[in-house]
Amino acid sequence: MTSGFVRHRRSKRIIATFSAFEADLLRSLAAQLVELLHDESAVAATEVDPLEKLLDFSGPTTEPEDPVLRRLFPNAYRCDDDAAAEFRRFTEGDLRNGKARAAGTIIDVLDEAGLPPEPTDEDLTIDVELEQETALVWMRSFTDLRLALGTRLEVEDGDEDYWYSLPDDDPRAQAHHIYEWLGFLQETLVGSLS
Question: 32, 89, 105, 156: least buried by Cβ within 10 Å?
Answer without folding.
Answer: 156
